């Protein structure tokens, strides 16, 4: 059975982000038979989710694994529940429709230099993707590994700890929203996905 990793980047990010590049390099070196996908996400939530679903649907004769960072963690939570996939959530957004309300208006992607607009209706699209907190049997199902750093300056890490309290949690003191030292956790991520 072929295995694929789908890396879902965060808001206003890109496949060229540090964590995405580190994941790609790690898999290429240690697990070259594992497929790696990290698309440049569409700028509206509904289009981004459709894009990600289409990728999963495109290869159904394999096992998909999700890694989602920040807003990508929120999207990965949705995809994990829809397709019953294992997901690693890195400093995941829990209520992005509240946070991104402050970003309504023109934005520019620092990686692609694409100019796009965040609109009020995008908050409704995000809200529609919200999933309930995993129940007490989450650890038994073992579908989530949630990694947060307490020094996250963008998101309140405690929101993720509360929502995913019944899942496998890694809470590291300090750090920041980028998740400092992420590459040191890739072996644990691969182990969680049972890729070795």
Automatic annotation (TrEMBL):
<protein>
    <submittedName>
        <fullName>Esterase YqiA</fullName>
    </submittedName>
</protein>
<dbReference type="Pfam" id="PF05728">
    <property type="entry name" value="UPF0227"/>
</dbReference>
<dbReference type="InterPro" id="IPR008886">
    <property type="entry name" value="UPF0227/Esterase_YqiA"/>
</dbReference>
<dbReference type="InterPro" id="IPR029058">
    <property type="entry name" value="AB_hydrolase_fold"/>
</dbReference>
């Amino acid at each position: 059975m072929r295995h694929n990793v789908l890396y879902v980047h965060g808001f206003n990010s890109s496949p060229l982000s540090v964590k995405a590049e580190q994941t790609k390099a790690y898999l290429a070196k240690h697990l070259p038979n594992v497929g790696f996908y990290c698309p440049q996400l569409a700028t509206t939530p509904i289009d981004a989710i459709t894009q990600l679903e289409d990728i999963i649907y495109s290869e159904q004769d394999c096992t998909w694994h999700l890694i989602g960072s920040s807003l990508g963690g929120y999207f990965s939570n949705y995809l994990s529940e829809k397709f019953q996939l294992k997901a690693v959530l890195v400093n995941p957004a829990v209520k992005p429709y509240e946070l991104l309300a402050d970003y309504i208006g023109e934005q520019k992607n620092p990686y692609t230099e694409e100019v796009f607009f965040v609109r009020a209706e995008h908050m409704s699209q995000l809200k529609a993707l919200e999933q309930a907190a995993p129940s007490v049997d989450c650890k038994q199902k073992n579908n989530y590994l949630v990694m947060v750093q307490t020094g996250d300056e963008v998101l309140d890490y405690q929101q993720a700890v509360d929502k995913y309290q019944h899942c496998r949690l890694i809470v590291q003191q300090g750090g920041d929203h980028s998740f400092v030292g992420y590459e040191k956790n890739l072996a644990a991520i691969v182990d969680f996905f049972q890729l070795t």
